[in-house]
Write the structure tokens for this entry.
Amino acid sequence: MKAIQVLDKAFVPFITASEIDRKIQEIADRINKAYSDKNPLFIAVLNGSFMFASDLFKKITIPAQISFIKLASYKGTTSTGNVITAIGLDESLKDRHIILLEDIIDTGKTLSEFLPQLWNQAPASLKIAALLTKPEALRHEVHADYTGFEIENRFVLGYGLDYDGYGRNLPELYQLKP
Ligand code: IMP
Ligand code: MG
């Protein structure tokens, strides 16, 4: 792994593919144990989580389903600001054990606005698995139940995460060059 250039920015190697794989196996082991009789429904938030979701789901050995959603943010007409809508959420969540898959929790804004909509559908439980969290950047009450890596507040790229649409295909994680 060496430094790379994406558009106008330089990125340096951060977390290797094998470290990611090891961490995802740990998360999968925990989920396989905790949900063995719960028939969980994974909900992966696109685009960023597609690699994480794919690699994690391959390591799930219990009966489970997965669905993919995209979150769209609209300027609300009320004072509450943006309205988040989920595209592609066709399954009923009622009485299901939901595990939401996110690439990264940064400020927590997106999930803090979206999670109430999921709770509205009366799931039996709702947990969050995030590959990455940036504790210093967190501004909203969102807590990941399963976290891959807690990282410092610096922009990261690769393994599904993008800079202006590029870099998602990198099998490892890079960090903006200091
Ligand atoms: P939040 O609402 O501030 O938590 O933002 C979360 C979303 O912003 C993530 O799902 C990512 O799509 C994007 N994001 C936040 N930090 C990064 C980063 O370091 N690299 C790439 N995307 C990021
Ligand atoms: Mg995302």
